[in-house]
Design goal:
160 residues, alpha/beta, Rossmann fold, seven-stranded mixed β-sheet, 5 helices
């Protein structure tokens, strides 16, 4: 049976930031957020807000890791922001040692998570961002495993 998904309307960038901050506040050690969406959907903006919720210091500006593949930020929990757009499969990721991050005590936010293939952890939150207007978005959240199910109930109450 497929997991239950939660749909959150984000009317403007401020709503997207509030939503991302809350995700960061609710994040726990070892969490993986598989973040997908078209170019320009707001994945980096959302990750910046998750970083705020994780108390990443303001002097550690969160940027897209497209060319660096991985950026690491300190905070309440370490934030590992990964972008696998330029990679083409599991073998490349194994060579980079990505499984150490996925099994670590930080929070992994992964753009282009489909590149992980079978390396994608069974315990994760899949979050898809889609444009619905010039400044509005919709977030579709699907928990895999048990870690995010209760937290999604909290998010549903707060963002509906």
């Amino acid at each position: 049976m497929p997991p239950a998904a939660l749909r959150i309307q984000l009317a403007d960038p401020a709503a997207t930031r509030r939503f991302g901050r809350r995700l960061g506040e609710l994040a726990a050690p070892g969490d993986v957020i598989a973040l997908s969406g078209d170019l320009g959907a707001g994945k980096t903006t959302l990750t910046q807000a998750i970083g705020e919720g994780l108390a990443v210091p303001a002097d550690h500006y969160i940027t897209s890791p497209t060319f660096g593949l991985l950026h690491e930020y300190p905070g309440r929990l370490p934030l590992f922001h990964m972008d696998f757009y330029r990679l083409h499969g599991e073998e490349e990721l194994l060579e980079l040692g990505v499984e150490e991050y996925l099994e670590g005590e930080g929070v992994c936010v992964i753009e282009w998570p489909d590149r992980l293939g079978t390396l994608l952890p069974p315990e994760r939150l899949h979050l898809e961002l889609a444009l619905t207007g010039p400044t509005s978005r919709v977030a579709l959240l699907t928990p895999f495993g048990t870690r995010w199910r209760e937290r999604l109930a909290t998010i549903a109450r707060e963002f509906r």
